[in-house]
Amino acid sequence: MEKIYKIAEEAKNLNVKRMKLSWTKFTTGFDFGIEEANKKNLEFYKDEKKYKEIIKMEDKVEDKMDKRRIEILKNDFEPYHLSDKLNKITLKIQNLTNKLSSVLNNFRFKIDGKEVTSVEIYDILNSSDDRNLRKKAFLSRNQINKKLVDEGFIDLVDLRKEFAEEFGANDYVDYKLSRQELSSEIFDNWENEVREALPEIRKINNKMNKKYLNVEEIKPWDMSYISSQIAPKLNEKVEMSKYYETINKFMNKFGINLDNYNIVYDIFPRKNKSEWGYNFPIETGKDSRILANVKNKFNEYGVLLHESGHGIHFYELNPEEIILNRGVSGIISEGIANLFGSFLTEPIFYKNIIGDSKKIREQFANIKNWRNIQTILNITGILFDQKLYQNNIQDINDIHDVYWNNYKSLLKKEPYAENPVWGYRIHHTTHPIYLHNYFMGTVTNKMIKQVFCKKHNIEKITEKPKEFWSFVKDNIIRPSGKYKYNELFKRISGEDFSLKYLKNDID
Length: 507
Known about the structure:
Helices cover about 60% and strands about 5% of the residues. It has 23 helices and 5 strands. The model has no long low-confidence stretch (mean pLDDT about 95).
């Protein structure tokens, strides 16, 4: 396995360089050679000698974990050894994705002709009593749709479809899922799950409408506002300059000390900086960086907790296991991040920031119930992302038809506007067929909580925070690269993945 580890080390070093270049681009807008790095990456994976070495070891190794290591590396190298055409398409996809990510990072929305940041839009949707302004803010996000298409988004979709066809996959969705060691069958009943949940969702939404809006119908630009009415404390102004001390003090309760990790935070907005939140796991166990955009509102800690969860997760992986770490499922990654993000509305986190009282606890209990009920609606976006690759897309109107047909079929609602809001969500451009990781990650972290509470005969994991974190490290993080996602889920829960865990939430 010595030669195999050497190959993996080279791959890791190439990825570290690409990640550093991406960090610079997303935080400053400057591109110091991402296309050149993509070329070097392609040449590395195309190396026939390296691939043959991996294939040769496939039949030689007997150790179970070595077999898993070979499986992971083969999965990474295989697409580069099927045809020259695939490699040419790969480079085109990488370069066009890089170009469009610049469009996303530099684009700024406008309301009534005035440029606004994503943070300001989010604040309007949360806090403004002016429903018309909320509508303008929400729909301003569709301004990037045409820009993306003009710059080549449909070409990117077509290239990905062409890649999947040349690869021999049923479609690009199947291809991407296979690279994540998942089967498309896992989604088979999700549309029915949404439809079955609609009556309960409508019931609670009607109740919230009567209480907070009293309009004919709740629209997408009303949802965040309702959340802020249910729990006004979410929008309380806080001093974010002490974010690090605040997060670290909270993490200490789980036995985690951020000072032991080399996590860099870049959290305040500026020109040419991406307006989304990211974790850049530059090098496992050595270098992790967090990008966010905050403006002194308590709810913004949700993003910082989520991204800190990513950072801590990748520090808890064994840096020596450079191959197994490549096999960690995106679902597990997002599950750990969602786990920490979910503490935003728990006293263990918020009481030292905004205080604690019966009223606050009631607000946050109500908002959790509201959000739990709405969670399943995330499937709508997941399936739209997939259907982009399962329909004929010739122009922007075709994209909008796919969006609205999916929207009407699942939610049984008519379009909320002429042009839907979709392009601002970066995943469609930079990380296609990834959105399911967030949703399945939420299901996973709810499962983890339920299993732990049952094992310890407690109601809330916050009764034993240090024991809970030890449980997560021992049962989820450290074995996560050793097993495919479905295997790991079953090892912990004793049964196959199921959405039932959404319906029995324990915090």
